[in-house]
Amino acid sequence: xxxYPFVTVDVFTDRRFGGNPLAVFPxxxxxxxxxxxxxxxxxxxxxxxFVLPPEDPANTARVRIFNRTAEMPFAGHPNVxxxxxxxxxxxxxxxxxxxxxxxxxxEVRVDRNAAGEPAGATIAAPQPLSLGPEMPVELLxxxxxxxxxxxxxxxxxPVVASVGNSFVVAEVAPxxxxxxxxxxxxxxxxxxxxxxxxxDRLPLYLYARExxxxxxxxxxxxxxxxTVEDAATGSAATPLAALLLSLSGEAEGRWDVAQGVEMxxxxxxxxxxxxxxxxIRATVGGGCVPVLRGEALV
Length: 298
Known about the structure:
Diaminopimelate Epimerase, Chain A, domain 1, 42% strand, 2 domains, 18 strands, alpha+beta, 8-stranded mixed beta barrel, single chain
């Protein structure tokens, strides 16, 4: 029976059992699409990654990302964690990696500690900011059990935003963020009404400003894809950073985003955005800590 080594890492944290856990298969050659999906469901994490040889030898690898139910075009903490794992194995080139993914090429820069060892990574999202339709405030509020008045609309209304993976991004009052609780039945009804993200898909990314703390706090709910709540969502923090920059007159900006607090898995995502010739581009980075190593029997 073939065996496939795997590693798990906690991403967007500097300590074990914080951040967002990720399973990485550093050599997925021989696994079928069905095998990968079954393994992702077995691990039951928000995402699992599978590393394959690149189609273009100039790139580091082809990386496939699966959540519990489907393959994803791009995601944040899977790229940060996979970059960290491959760098620990010496597969980076002077601290840089380039991943082929469905959404495009993802640039990864390895972050090292004082001893020169990999400590995390920073990734560049594969696409510039694109905005889609607005989601009705009442519909969004009902999904997470808050009132319409709790949704802040002074800067922007809840809107579909993407830099490679789409989310509904909404600002809420700080107190409402803590109270939010997803209602799966309401999510299903809302997804049938608000179809901008496709059938049976409605990831909601809520954030609140914390001026005293100098940053942002966020929560992400996607119960229709099996992730009731995510501890750290880099592919949502990046469009958030790009969206916030688009609302300002600045050329670039940086934001620290705290997530996972309510889950007992505190995470810190360092997001940034910059205006460029093809639009607003975003990056996100953070620390990684290895947790488990083993083999899967397939």
